[in-house]
Amino acid sequence: MSDPVAVVQRAPSQFKQPSRKGKKAWRKNVDITEVNSGLEDIRDEIIQGGVLAERPAEQLFTLDLAGQDAVKNEYRNKHKPLKSEEIIAQRSAIPAVDSRKRKSAAADGVATGSSKRSKNGAYVPYHELQRLKAIAASGTTAADQDSAPKSASYDPWAVEPESQSPPALPFLEPKKAPKLPQTLQHPPISLAANGKPFPSVGKPQAGKSYNPAFEDWDALVSREAQKEFEAEQKRVQKAKEDEERMEKALAEAAKPEPKGVDDDDYESAWESEWDGIQSESEQASYLDKKRPGRKTPQERNKMRRRKEAEARAKWEKQMRKKEEQQKAIKSLTRQVERKERERLQRLAAPAQDDESSDDEREETLRKKSFGKNPIPQAPLEVVLADELQDSLRALRPEGNLLGDRFRKLMVNGKIEARKPVFQYKKPKREVTEKWSYKDWKLR
């Protein structure tokens, strides 16, 4: 005997209700399975402590202002590369797809197109002919070249081994190998004032949190407002200086010309001199001019004494400077030692720079940038008082991780700043008229 199967008693229901407009529109039994399941879920939530949709945000989320020291130490001591750097570092063995438009190639390697010469199969293109000639000259077959292993990575600076076969054109000079530039071996130069590179993903500020403390948020807003105020003052001052300069130029141009000066006078004097004709006054002034003659012994001795005095004064100045440096050599040594000690302390304590936010460090960029275009300013990510949200449900994301990462590459000196080109220059098209219809002959 088999065990009796437990039968679950459910409310009678009719699942198929094609229409509610007929004679039997309202039936006795309606499917209430979904309603019962929803009520059961709500009862379970009430038993566990209350309905989740009705709970306040304080019971669903916790606000951690201090953080865990273990997680901080683990993040600080552990270096994990970014996902973008891992993707870029990958190298596929499959060659990239060529996007250029080409004619379709047949199985034997001969290009087939829509031209009359290629339809009969007897025409061989020029580039295919050159390839077959190169294979015949090297002594290998096309199958050997196709089956040769191809490397997935290509180093343009690698030294190629010299081929043992004689060159095709021995009277030409051998091709020189490319020279490796020295800058490839140098690390990128950071644009920071202290020379240290910025982290790829920096530590965010406390004032930019979705639910920041009032002190942190107020300090961030005050600092950004001060920056904008100083920038506006500089802009107004520059506009005022430009306006004054323009007014001075207009006033100078509006002044009347001095009397006795005429353009025709200048032109006539220039034309006469160009033609080799000079006036009598010009000839007289030229003849009255004293010509340089031989110097007397007194003049030569005077010039020699002056040169000796200048050289003696210059030498005495150098000796006095050298004596002062010798006297101050101890103080100079102490200054050099102090600067070296401060530099070693900065290099040995990177954690102190990590504590400061990236925005505070980027304020002290060095003046000379990498490239001729300036580094774009970081976007202003400040939330006003009426935009602050007290719950994660109403939170809207701010900022752009791709833009931040791209700007960090420019600030770290890995790429140069470029000016975006929104409208590309189109190639010139010259339209001409064919004259073939005008070439006709009488029969």
Automatic annotation (TrEMBL):
Q: Where is this region: Disordered?
A: 1-25, 82-123, 137-210, 225-376
Nucleus among the record's keywords?
Answer: yes
Subcellular localization is given as: Nucleus, Nucleolus; Nucleus, Nucleoplasm
Extract the InterPro entries matched here. Answer: Nop53/GLTSCR2 (IPR011687)
Q: Where is the composition biased (Polar residues)?
A: 138-150
Give the highest taxon in the source lineage: Eukaryota
Query: Has the keyword Nucleus been applied to this entry?
Result: yes
Basic and acidic residues: bias regions: 225-261, 296-327, 335-345
Broad class of where this protein is predominantly found: nucleus
Instruction: Return any one Pfam family short name.
Output: Nop53
Bias (Acidic residues) ranges: 262-274, 352-362
Task: Could you list this entry's UniProt keywords, alphabetically sorted.
Answer: Nucleus, Ribosome biogenesis
PANTHER family recorded: GLIOMA SUPPRESSOR CANDIDATE REGION GENE 2, RIBOSOME BIOGENESIS PROTEIN NOP53
What the record says about family reads: Belongs to the NOP53 family.
The entry's function note states: May play a role in ribosome biogenesis.
Its recorded name reads: Ribosome biogenesis protein NOP53
